[in-house]
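Please complete every field before forwarding. Incomplete forms are returned to the sender.

SECTION A: IDENTIFIERS
Entry label: holo-418
Bound molecule: flavin-adenine dinucleotide
Molecule representation: SMILES string

SECTION B: INPUTS
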Amino acid sequence: MAEMPVRSGRFTILGAGVVGLCCAAFLQRDGHEVTLVDRAEPGTGTSFGNAGLIHIDAMTPIATPGVVRRIPRMLLDPTGPLVVRWRYLHRIAPWLVRFAWAARKSSVENISIALASLLDRSDEAWRILIREAGAEDIWRETGELHVYRRKEAWEAAQESHALRRRRGARLEDLTVAEMRQLEPALTRDLHAGVYSPGASSVTHPLHLSQRLVELIRRRGGTFVRENVTGIEAGAAGRVRLVGDGGAREADSLVIAAGAFSRPFARAAGSSVPLDTERGYHLWLPRPGVEMRRPIVVGDHFFAIVPMTGGVRLAGTAELAGLDLPPYWGRADILGDLAKPFVPDLRLDAAERWMGHRPALPDSLPVIGRAPGHRDVFFAFGHGHLGLTMAAVTGRLIADLAGGRTPPMDMAPFAAERF
Ligand SMILES: Cc1cc2nc3c(=O)[nH]c(=O)nc-3n(C[C@H](O)[C@H](O)[C@H](O)COP(=O)(O)OP(=O)(O)OC[C@H]3O[C@@H](n4cnc5c(N)ncnc54)[C@H](O)[C@@H]3O)c2cc1C
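SECTION C: PREDICTED COMPLEX
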């Protein structure tokens, strides 16, 4: 059905996070009308609090043999980089089984190929929207500097670096002096590091979403603030969105509700094992240091990122579902872990945040038509790479909606893969 255009160019997009916004912007380029429905202000969900990195060289999935070996230990360390909360273990167990299955060597190789097919097109898709939204001041060609203090962490990362290089990533091994030349705020007490010169970052993810909102509005798009409680079959093969304010018919629909997409996908006939990897950030409004570029702390899997108005320490993954309260110790620990890397960093007046990454066990998003529906599309599940892949996702959804064959194999992203 990929080559068939939609019957109507009047689109409703459920979810105005960065993914929904990019879908709207690319659909508008093809002349479609868009209405975005969200219960909150656009861009204030998970898309608000991320690290702002356009990780174009992140071709390694989360599930790898090494990570799976560490699962038992993860259950015991509440402040480790990937943690499973005991109270959620019985709910996440089937997801973890799929996660372990995805970590087989052959599967990791295939997933990295699929990730590369999206990442290779991410930068170009973003640049189209950045130009059209006039957001050049928000986009930074900073590269991404991954640093390591412990020899064991550096050695453990080599497999992932090799995989990424096999997929075409440009990663340059650096000496400590070279790392400090790129980022003088770094400590001298480093073991090694790697630089990804093609990666970019944004000065603040919310500001980027806001520019997209302005672009979409300028082109005639509308935003509706509403909590959607379900979707159901409407008249003439269309879909009806049911919300707190009543029901609305949608001629064509994109489900882009991030980690909250699962019940809507189910109503459209697809049972996808979407869960969430919760992540945290610590916002430092008075960081006390000038930083030139984002640093990814390879020892602990989080980022130290200079942004407009402060420095953000962001990362960690916690399997604890959508409803359990935040465990703020995971945000606080980021400050303690960052200090040895950027010794002058000041932690006063720090603000904590927690958000829900939409996570599939194979680290691949769901992008495509809902099975059996010509006019319903899925665009969710981008995990750790939702900011990076939002624009290319929008472009692919517009290709499918316009009846154009996408420039890459879409099978790895189909909902039917589960
Ligand atoms: C700590 C952290 C750091 C990260 N760093 C990066 C990074 O550096 N680079 C990167 O590429 N990715 C990063 N990510 C991942 C990225 O932030 C997400 O993948 C991305 O924001 C997902 O976007 P989304 O639009 O799918 O979801 P969201 O931003 O969550 O948007 C979904 C929208 O749907 C709405 N919605 C949900 N349910 C309903 C409903 N019932 N009715 C109406 N509206 C509804 C929500 O209000 C929300 O606005 C990070 C994530 C975290 C947590």
